[in-house]
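From the methods appendix. Each design record in this collection lists the tokenized structure first, followed by the designed amino acid sequence. Records were kept in a plain field format so they could be parsed without special tools. The example shown here is representative of the layout used throughout.

RECORD:
FOLD TOKENS (96 positions):
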């Protein structure tokens, strides 16, 4: 699967590439902002391998009705979460 959310790749890429310090800096920056989209925080968490935290942030994104969630079923950035029952339940709740 390929990424449909190129605008979301920025918070995801450093962690997945092994640049943990950079990913942690991005995470702290996102957490310090009041209007940060929960899906961006979830992507940093995925990149860092913190899948449990990522699913929690995706749940928040769902509650906030963030539009980027429409792509999580197909987008390759979410592949590490596939098979997680909570992630699969979220996909069903979105309507996929």
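DESIGN:
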């Amino acid at each position: 699967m390929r990424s449909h959310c190129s605008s979301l790749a920025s918070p995801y890429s450093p962690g997945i590439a092994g640049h943990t310090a950079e990913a942690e800096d991005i995470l702290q920056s996102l957490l310090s902002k009041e209007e940060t989209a929960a899906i961006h925080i979830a992507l940093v968490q995925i990149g860092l391998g913190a899948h449990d935290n990522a699913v929690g942030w995706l749940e928040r994104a769902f509650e906030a009705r963030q539009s980027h969630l429409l792509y999580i079923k197909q987008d390759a950035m979410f592949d590490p979460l596939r098979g997680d029952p909570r992630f699969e339940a979220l996909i069903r709740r979105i309507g996929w």
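APPENDIX NOTE: The longest helix spans residues 20-32.
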